[in-house]
Amino acid sequence: MLKPDSIYKDYNAYLRFERGLSDHSVEAYEQDLDKLRQYCDTYHLDIVRLTLSDLEQFVYQTFNEQSNARSQARILSGIRSFYRFLLYKNFIEQDPSELLAQPRKEQHLPAVLTLEEIDSMIAQIDLSSNEGHRNRAIIEMLYGSGLRVSELTELKLSNIYLEEEYMLILGKGSKQRYVPISPEAKKWFIYWLEERSHWPIDSKATDYAFLNRRGRPLTRAMVFTIIKRLTEAAGIHKVVSPHTLRHSFATHLLQNGADLRVIQQLLGHEDLATTEIYTHVDVQDLRKAILTYHPANH
Questions:
Q1: CA dist., res. 15 & res. 23, Å (int)
Q2: Distance CA 249, CA 241 (A)
Q3: If you ran DSSP here, which 8-state letter would residue 197 be given?
Q4: Which of 136, 148, 196, 252 is the catalytic position?
Q5: Is 148 a catalytic residue?
Q6: What CA dihedral angle connects 286, 289, 294 and 298, to 10 degrees?
Q7: Which of 210, 189, 206 is nearest to 136 (CA)?
Q8: In this structure, is the dihedral angle defined by the CA atoms of residues 132, 151, 69 and 260, taken in order, positive or negative?
């Protein structure tokens, strides 16, 4: 008989080493699986022998408590991942989750900053402070290259090729991609490197591109804080995060004629459908132009 603890341990290893997921992603998958485990414990069910009917009952009960469609979709994704693993390892002969219905996701258009708003944020950076050039380089990297915040904090000096003007980025699922460095980002990063050379640097952080005051790798939380402070100082009344700069990077490229597949490659999206959300942002701009300039609307 299969021991659940052994299966869960194998599943953890599968997510980490065979699928190459980050600690954060593995934790999210296991949290979703925990909901199903608790359901099985409550009703004395064997998680390996669940039927489609069992899973539908779990979904009905769980989704009555969790009404957000995005959260529902994530839970379903976690369940499907677990049963695909069981099938892959020959623990089961048929995947009971294959026909589970997928809830319709709510479509939220991402917040986008105008070029003027980004310039206004940049103008709030005090270049005379110890972190001034670092913070300017961070903004230029996020907006100029469309990096995720985790990609920025994990960026290594050994993967930055300033003369050739590109970076090797380690994205989601440990997938690598090459991303150009804009001339402006290159300029400010060089200024930051000069400033960085005078900082105390922890022996384990020598290859990290961005550091905190103690010479350790900059955290995601600190990048969020930097962006929040600049946004507030600039008087921008939008919910702005590091990801907003990534959204703005993609939207501005699209608005200026860049091919969607090129944007997909720059962002490191596996599926073009993920990138297509930026076309919705562009349609909103077209609608705004009609409402503003068409005489029938005046």
A1: 9
A2: 13
A3: T
A4: 148
A5: yes
A6: 130
A7: 189
A8: positive
DSSP secondary structure letter of residue 133: H
DSSP conformation letters of 224-262: HHHHHHHHHHHT--S---HHHHHHHHHHHHHHTT--HHH
Does residue 237 have an active-site annotation? no
Distance CA 145, CA 216 (A): 23
The tens place of each residue's pLDDT in the chain, 298 residues long, gives: 456 678 999 999 999 998 988 888 899 899 989 999 998 998 889 999 999 888 988 888 887 665 567 778 888 888 999 999 999 999 999 999 988 876 555 555 668 899 999 999 999 999 999 999 999 999 999 999 999 999 999 999 999 999 999 999 988 777 889 999 999 999 999 999 999 999 999 999 999 999 999 999 999 999 999 999 999 999 999 889 999 999 899 888 888 888 888 888 888 887 776 676 666 555 555 455 555 655 665 5
User: Is 246 a residue of the active site?
Assistant: yes
Q: Does the annotation mark 278 as catalytic?
A: yes
Which of 35, 156, 172, 220 is labelled catalytic?
172
Place of tokens 């994530």: 74
Compute the distance between CA of residue 203 and CA of residue 215 in angstroms, rounded to an integer: 9
Told to judge if 243 belongs to the known catalytic residues of this protein, a careful annotator would answer: yes
